[in-house]
Design goal:
- This protein is of the alpha/beta class and about 375 residues long.
- It is about 30% helix and about 15% strand.
- It is built from 9 helices and 12 strands.
- α3 packs parallel to α4 and α3 crosses α5.
- The chain is globular.
């Protein structure tokens, strides 16, 4: 019997990515899979792009009535205000395996429905490395938004509020836009910004550094820190000397904070830092290394304004789906890496990747004591 993958339409506002591009869908169909794709007007790939790939297009939001043996494939969280039991196997980023707010409630839905969560964040190979991740484009987009926000503050002062962000069709359009903004800001400010990237050696940090370079920031203005620079433990006063701080670490164990609110409020020495981009978005994690804010921001409302009186205010960006700034390129890169694991669903019992994911799910259900 053919393995059935059901691609649900994303419902998170301003989410334009997809977990399965038309090209990847065709490769699955050619390999003997049954693929259903929900219609979606927000996806960067139009419904028409899937025509001729062999998939079956189905109505938006009908995954709940999909065949019991179908894998429900998506990216972000399931629709809000719904706590119904989940009987299917879901492949998605659920953000509930690291003690995030509401994690027990999410897992309880799977337990009640006798379903399974195969979390995309925790699909790892035999070396423990993630098989597919949006990290590079998250860092790339985070760096772009940070530079755009810095330009906005230079050009407009503290008011008006940084406006809503729209996605770009490709990276060249994004680079052109930020370069133009920087030219105006530098003419007023007198120099290019200093950008500090934490977790610079990872995929996410690599993306952050690459965009800064693509936008014309010189190497001496891009300060890259990783494990070697942070092994002594934070907080680190050096962060405050830079205009923009981009946090790109993958938090897996408790660590001392990188920066504190008390540091940001200090007027003992002028603080350069005015923009903080938390690409990692671990604010609801009990071990959050950036404990100067709580919550998340969105493309519609991108900034949390942190009162640091008597020091100047600090603007924080904490958008948890930054790759959607470049939805086409980020989706294509992610699906290319994920495809081999999706093909392995034909023999899931023999797959280390899927076996580890299912084992972790059951361990987390046990940990939740549901």
């Amino acid at each position: 019997m053919a393995v059935h993958i059901w691609v649900r339409a994303e419902t998170k506002h301003q989410e334009h990515r997809t977990a399965l591009t038309p090209n990847a869908a065709k490769q699955l169909v050619d390999a003997g899979f049954t693929v259903s794709v929900e219609r979606c007007t927000e996806r960067i790939f139009n419904d028409a792009d899937y025509e001729g790939t062999g998939v079956t297009m189905v109505p938006h939001g009908t995954w709940r009535t999909a065949p019991a043996d179908a894998y429900i494939l998506g990216l972000k969280e399931l629709p809000e205000n719904d706590d119904s039991a989940l009987p299917h196997a879901h492949i998605m980023f659920a953000h509930c395996f690291k003690g995030q707010a509401g994690w027990r409630e999410v897992l309880d839905r799977f337990k009640r429905g006798n379903g399974t969560l195969l979390d995309l964040e925790f699909l790892v190979d035999e070396r423990g490395r993630r098989v597919a991740a949006f990290g590079y484009h998250a860092g790339y987009a985070g760096s772009a938004v940070g530079l755009d926000l810095w330009c906005h503050k230079v050009l407009n002062g503290e008011e008006p509020v940084f406006p809503a962000i729209n996605h770009f069709n490709n990276d060249q359009d994004l680079i052109k836009y930020i370069k133009a903004r920087l030219a105006l800001a530098v003419a007023k400010f007198g120099r290019l910004p200093r950008v500090m990237v934490m977790g610079a050696l990872g995929r996410c940090g690599g993306g952050a550094g690459d965009f800064a370079r693509d936008a014309g920031i010189p190497a001496e203005n891009i300060i890259q820190w990783d494990l070697a620079e942070t092994k002594a433990g934070g907080p680190f006063a050096e962060i405050l000397a830079h205009d923009i701080f981009v946090n790109c670490i993958y938090l897996s164990t408790p660590i001392p904070p990188f920066v504190s609110l008390e540091m940001c409020k200090s007027v003992e020495k002028a603080r350069g830092l005015s923009v903080l981009v938390d690409v990692s978005c671990d604010a609801t994690n009990p071990h959050n290394p950036i404990p100067v804010y709580y919550g998340a921001t969105t493309f519609v409302d991108p900034v949390i304004r942190v009162d640091c009186a008597p020091a100047p205010r600090l603007d924080v960006v904490a958008i948890d789906h930054l790759p959607s700034l470049l939805p086409r390129e980020s989706s294509e890169a992610f699906c290319k890496d994920l495809l081999p694991s999706l093909l392995a669903l034909k023999n899931r019992a023999d797959s280390q990747v899927w076996g580890k994911a299912e084992k972790l799910f059951h361990a987390k259900v046990d940990e939740a004591k549901l």
